[in-house]
Amino acid sequence: MSAKARGAGLLFVAAAMGACIHPPAGRIGLAALPEQPVQPDWSARYAVLVVVDGLRPDLLSSEGTPNLARLIREGATTLRARTVSPSATLPAHASLLTGLEPEAHGVTWNEFAADQEVEVPTVFDAVLRSGGEAALFGGKEKLRHFVRPGMRVEIGDLPSDERVMEAALRYLPELRAPAVVLVHLPAVDVAGHLFGWGSAAQRRAVSQADEQIGRLVEALEQRRLREAALVIVTADHGGHGHNHLAGNAADRTIPWIAWGGPVRPGRLPPLPLTMTARIVLDALGLPQLPAPASATH
Asked: What pLDDT is recorded for position 79?
């Protein structure tokens, strides 16, 4: 075997093992954008958080995900954001909504557990306390752990991103500021577990998730909500092989894309998923969440 062939084989094995993720910054149009600070000065009346479960950033492309490519061109993006450890759905969503690492928010389980509660405040609590609205539309029953009284909720074990997005779009006309809306799209993760991360089947699921995000963007623009909305598209984790719990770069590297009226186009440096809660509350003009008691001693 030639040295060139051996090198190509080693690169293939490294990619398959998730040893290193190289987000396609040039291929998706990100490299040409100017750099932006980590904490941009954004102001919005509505925050819409779209979590594409299991989306690894190297699965994005201008051809396969044209709607996300558009958000990247028009928004502020890092393709090297970092999720938490364990890189699993419930711990990551808890970190997204609280701004805390798992050891601080205490959500270390990853299945619905009737005897477990999320005991620390979330961005949902903050917006409801202010008199605003909170909503959660998701494709996994275990997300009920984040439901608070007074929220609009449609959750079920639905592998269909289309059905989740349809529920969210039905709610849009009822939005009242300030509002936080979480839309969880499950199908990319389902395809990863069944067929493997980076498989042809999963890439089709990524393209289908992109179509649903395009529907959301179109609806916001048709209702003239773009200027008042901060849309953040990210993931709870990536993955490699048929799972995402090894804690390597393939599992923990995620995209983080902000788009909407207050957002200037640009490249963000790598940021942790935990920063999302702070950015959302700053944008809505709401107080930051209090630190848990254990963190103050």
From this structure: 95
Taking residues 43-47, report their average pLDDT.
Answer: 96
Here the tokens at position 277 are: 């809660």
Element housing 182 (H / E): strand 179-185
From 110-124, 213-227, 237-251, the region with the lowest mean pLDDT: 110-124
**Adjacency order of strands within the sheet including 253-260:** 152-155, 133-138, 179-185, 46-52, 229-234, 253-260, 76-82, 266-267
| 194 Cβ neighbours under 8 A, 6+ residues apart | 201, 242
How would you label 165-184 residue by residue, b for 16+ Cβ within 10 Å and e otherwise? bebbbebbeebebbbbbbbb
Task: Please name which of 162, 167, 158 lies closest in space to residue 139, comparing C-alpha atoms.
Answer: 158
CB 82 within 8 A of CB 88: no
Cβ atoms of 211 and 198 within 8 Å: the answer is: no
In contact, 280 and 126? CB cutoff 8 Å: no
Given a cut of 90, is residue 294 above it in pLDDT?
Answer: no
For residue 152 the two structure tokens come to 């609009």
CA angle 52, 276, 214 (to 5 degrees): 35
**Residue-wise DSSP of 248-287:** SHHHHEEEEEEEETTPPPEEPPP-BTTHHHHHHHHHHT-P
Q: How many helices (H) and strands (E) does the chain have?
A: 10, 8
**Tokens matching residue 80:** 């090297």
Task: Give residue 11's pLDDT.
Answer: 29
Task: Return d(Cα 205, Cα 203) in angstroms, integer.
Answer: 5
- pTM for the full model? 0.89
Q: What is the mean pLDDT of residues 78-82?
A: 96
- Rounded Cα–Cα distance for residues 23 and 25 (Å): 6
